[in-house]
Amino acid sequence: MRNALVGGIIVVVVAVLVWAGIHNVKARRAAEADAKNHQMTITVDKPGATASMDSPVADLRGKPAAIFTLTSNTGKRISLNDYKGKPVLLNFWATWCTPCKVEMPWFEEFQKKYAAQGLQVVGINEDEDAKSPEIQAQIKKVLENTGVDYTILMSDQKVGDAYGGLDVLPATFYIDRNGKIVAQAIGLAPKEEAEANIQKIVAGS
What we know:
41% of the residues lie in helices and 21% in strands. The chain is an alpha+beta fold.
């Protein structure tokens, strides 16, 4: 009788422990799912810089592209007005931005592919202290490794503000022949999407 009672107690205790374990697992999974649904996904490639994120950014589509004049990596002064009447892919990048270096060869490819339609690809480097020999050497290395031969300009740290503040890199703006921003991509976009946006601006009158 005593053994049966002890056995019954053990069964009850084990059952309670099993139930508690199942309940805890379910509660943990529910909490994880809730956290996942409410979290903001951020991929950081450098402290203080974001490669891609789900948070809202300035939507400049339909607005005139801000005019600027900057110095190229070869020392030439170039203005966005120099490309008036031509479709422009304007890409903001930095040497520390890994996603930037993924898409730069695509842009070089598109520059050649759509050259007959007047496409101009312009990259603006957003590295701090870009004029220093160290950063200049890094820029040169990135351009060599990515095979980029399109125009590269050095940011004045102001032009980025005119294009939404650029808290996210890479940032690409597709400007039509009338100087209007038709599309934009904040963060790394698929190659197919980039080409589709190019086709939009080269097709415009």
